[in-house]
Structures are given as C-alpha cells and as structure tokens.
C-alpha cells in the first residue's frame, strides 16, 4: 500500500502509487469527517480518527479494517465522543486522543475493539486554564504528550498519564510567540516543531530536557 512505484520516465525516486481508501458512510472502510491519523511504526497499522462516526478505525498495512474502536463517555447517558487527533505511545499499549471540541484528551487501550467507555482528562494548568480548540498532538520518546492549545496560543506538555506538566509560548508575532498553533511534532532529540498559521511560518523550539537532565536547555530557546 505504501511502496513507491518506479517509472522508466520518472527520475524522482519518490514517485508513489496512488490509492483511494474508503468512501463516505457509516460502515467499515467508510468515513464521515475523518480527522487525525497515525501509523504504528512497528506494525505499520493505520489508526484513523473517523470523527463523524465517533470511532477509530484500525487498518492493516494492506488497507483492511481489522478493528473499530467506538468511543463513549463513561457515564449513565453513554454519550458518544468524537476523536480529533491521535498518537500512539511507544512505551505502553495506549492511544492518546484529543476529543470533542479540543478541550480534553483521553487514553485508550491500544488493542481495544468495539465500545470503549472513557473518562476524559480536562488538562488544567496551575492557574486553572484548560485547553481550547486543541488542533495538534504529538509524543516524545518518553511518551510525554505535547498539545497545540490553539485557542490559547501555546503548547501544553503533559506526563504520559495525562497529568499537566507545563506550557510555553504566548500570543504574538515575536520570536517564541504563536498565533493559533496547529500541527506539531517532536524530534528524537526533543525539539518541538510547530505550525504557526497566524504568523504564516513554522516555529522551532529548542530541545526539551529529559526528566533526569540537569542541563539548562529550555523551550524558550527558539528559532524561526
């Protein structure tokens, strides 16, 4: 499914075969408002936030739906929850999801199948501020959770269990500031790369120190 196709008339080594996977609908292999995706680096399985159908479809590398994870709030009303962004933890068998309006996250057992009843984490900082319209999600090699808190123009960092650790950046156009941050990822050495659409740029924040690292490197060192 993901193998490149070489052509006698094509000098670009990254000329790929093209596939269409799924159509609009509610059955397996069908989607309604698909949102975030991630790929398991070990198995090649594809995890798709089928947002409009309130579920995660898990596809094999060949594009076959193996499992469907349906999300419900763990309450008497059994309210359905829509996954927005998704990431796989490397050091445990859990999926991390941003859900709903981007104001909470949840942890889901990676090998779930069928209905899953979850308790969302409403990530709250020391000043009582949560996340709002969060549009980006990434994990570092320690499985710490990085969230683009789009509505508050900052990046929030949580422990692997969802506990708030810290946040950085403020609204603005100066070095180290963001305007409606969206997609983000974390490099293997801990640098955070963020799309900054309000400023029409990418922003790179320097290495995040490991928990046992006594160096003075911090997220306020940034480069355009």
TrEMBL record:
It comes from the Eukaryota. InterPro entries: 6-blade_b-propeller_TolB-like (IPR011042), NHL_repeat (IPR001258), TRIM-NHL_E3_ligases (IPR050952). The keyword Repeat applies. NHL repeats lie at residues 18-62, 165-208. One of its GO terms (molecular function) is ubiquitin protein ligase activity. Keywords: Repeat. GO terms for biological process: proteasome-mediated ubiquitin-dependent protein catabolic process; protein polyubiquitination. Pfam families: NHL (PF01436). PROSITE patterns: NHL. This is NHL repeat containing protein. It comes from Adineta steineri.
